[in-house]
Amino acid sequence: MSSTPGKLFCFGYGYCCDYLGYTLLAQEGQWTVAGTTRDLEKQVLMRENGIKSYVFDHSKPLDDPQLFFSGVTHLLISTPPSDDGDLTFNMHADDILKIPTLKWVGYLSSTGVYGDKDGEWVDEMTELSPNSKRGSRRAKAEGQWLSLFKSHGLPVHIFRLAGIYGPGRSALDSVRAGYARRISKPGHAFSRIHVEDIVQVLEASMNNPAPGEIYNIADDLAAPSHEVIDYACQLLGMQSMPIIPFEEADMSPMARSFYADNKRVHNDKIKNDLNVSLKHPNYRSGLEACLIVEEEYQLRQISEVSI
Description:
Number of helices: 11
Mean pLDDT: 94
Structural class: alpha/beta
Low-confidence stretches: none
Largest sheet: 7 strands, parallel
Helix content: 25-40%
């Protein structure tokens, strides 16, 4: 980064953006962070944490976008798309093209755009063939943002995320809550990525922009979900539950749809082009790190109560 502080604006300030914002603000004096939310209570919480926050949803575009975008150097889009494509693109593409200070734009997509590959490996050059509504919407949104790179030179970068997990959002939580199940579909595997690794990939790209590039963000080990649940039980000192064959599992249509895609995701590009070394190359390392963070948080809570 240059000596001039950067300004990040996030559309859809969710889990990943929150971790990125926290990481950047820890670099004192180097960044300011702003973002949007649909939740008024979250808007207040964001402001308490030093993040300028604005309400933005399907019915309410930003009132004065050029004022809010003033000085923005980096823009991250994490809003979920609809059948019409990306919400941010549809409401504010023209406004974004007018930001004179913009150096980098990131769009958080999904590896769901590849569809089902029957367990084969995919990389960034693999043809997109989504077989779900979620994947199709993401593919359309990617195309929208890349069109602005091609037509106007907007410095767009696409990040295709595998299954996101981290503290407060992992197999540890589902096991603790009592709704985790070990479902087995032979030959099926999921790719995952810890939120800390998402953040370091985004930071690496922000520091070394390559407009028009697409990156898979996944760890080194695609694994069946029942193995992950089993390891979470081990870490928590709990007895693992029996395996349920996929054909016998009672699942919602949403849950069942995740088993319709079977692929393994190559992550060579983030390593070779962005020089990223994963902090959590597999679910074991990632879950162990989640448990440490959660236990430290509990100790702080106990300490504050005792004081």
